[in-house]
Amino acid sequence: MTSVDTQQLQRLNLEAWAYLLRQDAEMAAVQVTAVAAEPLNQQTTRYWITLAGHPEPITLLGQESTPAEYHVYNDYAPHLDQLLPRCWYSELLGNVGWMVLDDTAEDHPANTWTMRDVEKLVEQLAIMHSTFWGQEPTSEQLPAYIGRTGRTADTTPAPGSLADKVRAIYRRQTRSRSGRALPASYLSFDLRQVGTQAPALKRATVGLQILRGMGGWPGVLTTKHLDAFDALLEQPDLMLKPLREVPFTLLHGRPAVENWRISLFDEYNLLGWQHATLGPSVCDLVYVLEDFFVNCTSVNERDKRPYYFYQEWPIVEETLIDTYFLKLAQQLPAEEYNARALRRHALPAARCLYTLTTWLPLISDWFAELPNGRHTWEILENMGEEELAHTAHSPLIALRPHLRPLFARFLEAYTLLWM
């Protein structure tokens, strides 16, 4: 066999899998005697490959990919061999790709991480960012997380244009049950100037309108939060300008804890590069911090380590931020690295953008599914924990203890943008 393709591998062709493995010099004479497939989800399959003379099969993962992930493994992976699992095969047909990767074991689950584990994780993130520091988006490379240039719309779009239609949709006002008009945010800027975050910002606008109609979220989101969301959606350059002024680098895009793997030998792998872009590094940092806080800390005092993280989060977060910036300083020449600009201006801007593009769309989806809208929400708000446990909406309410400080940090960051 002189070549291999996706269909041969997916059909469990033994010669195709043998050809693939023989790319490794140490496996040049390998013989594949059997291949079995174990679907893990709609996108990923684990392949069990039995080799002649070996008592145990080896496992590889076959998964669907995006153009962004395809380019990361083909163009960037050679410089990130310690962070990305080995890619044995990749193919891209239009906007759909398929690849075969090493199967990374989750030996050290996130709920067992120590403070040192998380520090080393953000150090790995800093090393990755420093490796591609100053890389600018081009049409041939990865898309831009946010546009490199921004321009608030100051001209009237041509009648019937896409921008005109978008504004018409998102200028709709909501009304309270009493009929009084409520403030409604709308997108008054060209969506083409905000990179891959444009769809999320559109959904954020819908989320804000729903929250206005619901009267906010008592104890979690106040009028101050909603007004801040409104201001940022109408004047996005307030948060985007500080981010555009720092060097761009390779971004994972969604470095959630579920995408990290820590082995028994302290090897760190970062998976799930479907949303990779080029942009300001602090956007990845904020995502890691907030995702870890929501998913890996506990309000239950019996969960010793997670409870410590939750209880001492301001100190934990500051330590992790310091760790990240110190590692960047070690990796980058002094003339290319402005820690003050990153910490003072870009970091709060990234936190605001994260909150808008991550939580407002999610809240929009949650609230849109509530039967009878505001009336149901008022009932849920007054339920006790035991009552909530028997409803389909308990996960939403259960996040209140985490979302209160998360949105408080957003409001602090928003205030810093005006200083």
- Uncertain residue ranges: 151-185
For the biggest sheet, the summary is: 5 strands, antiparallel
- How large is the share of residues in beta strands? 5-15%
Number of domains: 2
CATH architecture title of the largest domain: Alpha-Beta Complex
What is the CA-based Rg, rounded? Answer: 24 Å
The count of DSSP E runs of length 2 or more, i.e. the number of strands, is 9
* Count of DSSP-assigned helices: 16
End-to-end Cα distance, whole Å, is 65 Å
DSSP helix fraction: 40-55%
CATH topology of the largest domain: Aminoglycoside 3'-phosphotransferase, Chain: A, domain 2
Described by the principal axes of the CA atoms, the overall outline is globular
Oligomer classification = single chain
If you average the pLDDT, what whole number results? 86
Top CATH class of the largest domain: Alpha Beta
Structural class: alpha+beta
Spatially, the strands of the biggest sheet line up as 1-2-3-5-4
Strand/helix succession: HHEEEHEEHHHHHEEEEHHHHHHHH
